[in-house]
Amino acid sequence: MADLTALALICTLTPSPEPSSSELMAQHILDELKGQNVDTSSVRVVDYNVKRGVLTDMGDGDQWPLIREQILAADILVLSTPIWMGHPCSVAQQVLERLDAELSETDDQGRPVMYGKVATVAVVGNEDGAHKTIADMMQGLNDVGFTLPAQGGTYWVGEAMHTIDFKDLAQVPDPVASTNAGLARNAAHLARFLRAHQYPAD
């Protein structure tokens, strides 16, 4: 049986059931994680009523608490976002803003609740900005307590100013497939290590 769990937060701007390159990239990573004996699931954030704000629950029908519950239950988080105008999309930024609330949430030993969890980032687009987007997302995730594995970011960007998306490809390019496999391998290894060797309490 799998000894770890992974959750992909898919930050596409496109509601279900329309195809999404961000979802496809996340699914490739989740498939690699399954090969590392990890149970996987995913959430397309835009399908939920996630309120703007920086609290764990903004009330008035806010569905972020449903997503947060899944994040807390997972060992590994995969954050998958498209690039828009050279930046992470607004949904990905909103996820980071909601995760900001975790800075004041602690476990029974006083550690931030995201300590011991591993985060990875996947980016797709047809313009420049993949490295900056990964850097922005990783910085925010690390700030709230997630641990980042070696080479924990992956991306595909098409030719600038063209209309080919990741979901339009006949197959995953070999360099992307290799990067995704390494990301999954390192994320699972780190998650198992942190489960056995949690960060010290104050």
UniProtKB/TrEMBL annotation:
Residues 16-159 form the NADPH-dependent FMN reductase-like domain. GO terms for molecular function: oxidoreductase activity. It holds the Pfam family FMN_red. This is Flavodoxin family protein. InterPro entries: Flavoprotein-like_sf, FMN_Rdtase-like_dom. The lineage of its organism: Bacteria, Bacillati, Actinomycetota, Actinomycetes, Micrococcales. It comes from Arthrobacter cheniae.
